[in-house]
Design goal:
Elements: E1 2-6, H1 12-15, E2 16-20, E3 30-39, H2 42-49, E4 65-73, E5 85-90, E6 100-110, H3 117-121, H4 124-137, E7 145-148, H5 154-165, E8 169-174, H6 177-185, E9 190-193, H7 199-206, E10 212-217, H8 222-227, E11 231-239, H9 252-258, E12 261-264, H10 268-273, H11 275-290, E13 298-302, H12 307-315, E14 322-326
Parallel strand pairs: 7-8, 7-10, 8-9, 10-11, 11-12, 13-14
Antiparallel strand pairs: 1-2, 3-4, 3-6, 3-14, 4-5, 5-6
Length: 329
């Protein structure tokens, strides 16, 4: 089969190579799928660089989530059969940027019939992350104000839709007019182009000085520091990641004085610590998708040969929404 492989660490453009490799085989509770669609995620970039918390043994195939058709199952698999259309997180080194990949039954779920392959493939990590961040960690309530950073990216677009579905007023922060248009299309009530406006000033203006009740921050660094200047009384800042490249230190005296919470989310831990919650979340996300209240924005659908370029463009911050490899473009 054809697969993108990383044999040494570095920038995606330098280390991703499309090769012919053996097809994977199922074992235990593992499932082999024909990849129907697999989106690029920022963890794919970080793994190419060797900077992600998960460091697969070299060589490996990136692509941390997918939608696929089951073609073989291990002897321990009981919930899925050949021909099933499924989504889930891949078992590295057999990631989704290939013709065939491997899933584990514990983190594999039926693909929602209301979503096409590219949308279904993009539902798992970004929307699970958004749902756990907003509901499990921040307890977002109807009528509250949600500030979403990187609102035109993969997890940001999910957070906008999930915030609106929860009845919140959503302020999206983006970089550039094209991304601003995307955030508006997804339903953000207020959109801030950070190249042209100060989001702190905008948040204070539109909330009458109160600030945002919940801040969804996958960027970190100065973005986090400035978010503390527009957080509401009893607000919650949810730390999703550090796409900006800087891991900031929190001024705990400031959190004390302003009475806000700093909440971390490592969604991957739920897969091992509380897998039943992940399954419940999938049921909720499927219901929202079936009702038309959420739907991953897939801005580009690409053949396998173009995946290397797509991952580098994601690394460079020039993509909008989700960019996905699709087997049949």
């Amino acid at each position: 089969m054809k697969a993108w492989r990383v044999a040494e660490l570095g920038e995606p453009r330098d280390v991703l190579t499309l090769l012919d490799v053996p097809d994977p085989e199922p074992a235990g509770t593992r499932i082999v799928v024909r990849v129907l669609a697999s989106p690029a995620n920022f963890p794919d970039v970080l793994m190419c660089r060797g900077l992600y918390q998960i460091k697969p043994e070299l060589p490996f195939t990136p692509g941390v989530e997918l939608c696929g058709e089951v073609v073989a199952v291990g002897p321990g698999v009981t919930r899925f059969a050949v021909g099933d259309r499924v989504i889930g997180g891949t078992v590295l080194p057999h990631g989704g940027f290939a013709e065939y990949a491997v899933l584990d039954e514990a983190v594999t779920f039926p693909a929602p019939s209301s979503l096409d392959d590219a949308q279904a493939g993009s539902l798992y990590i970004g929307y699970q992350t958004g749902w756990f961040a907003l509901h499990r960690r921040a307890a977002l309530q109807p009528g509250e104000t949600l500030l979403v950073h990187a609102a035109a990216g993969g997890v940001g677009t999910a957070a906008i839709q999930l915030g609106k579905a929860a009845g919140a007023r959503v302020i999206g922060v983006v970089g550039g007019p094209e991304k601003a248009a995307v955030a508006r299309e997804l339903g953000a009530d207020v959109v801030v182009d950070r190249h042209a406006e100060d989001f702190v000033t905008v948040v204070k203006d539109v909330t009458g000085g109160r600030g945002a009740d919940v801040v969804f921050d996958p960027v970190g660094g100065d973005t986090y520091a400035r978010s503390t200047k527009c957080i509401a009384f009893e607000g919650r800042i949810v730390i999703i990641g550090f796409a900006g490249g800087e891991i900031q230190s929190a001024a705990l005296n400031h959190a004390l004085i302003k009475n806000y919470s700093i909440v971390g989310l490592h969604w991957g831990l739920y897969n091992t610590r509380a897998p039943q919650l992940v399954a419940e979340c999938h049921t909720e996300l499927t219901a929202l998708a079936d009702a038309g209240r959420i739907g991953p924005l897939v801005s580009e659908r690409l053949p396998l040969a173009d995946v290397g370029d797509a991952v580098q463009r994601l690394a460079d911050g020039t993509t909008v929404g989700r960019v996905s490899y699709v087997a049949e473009v």
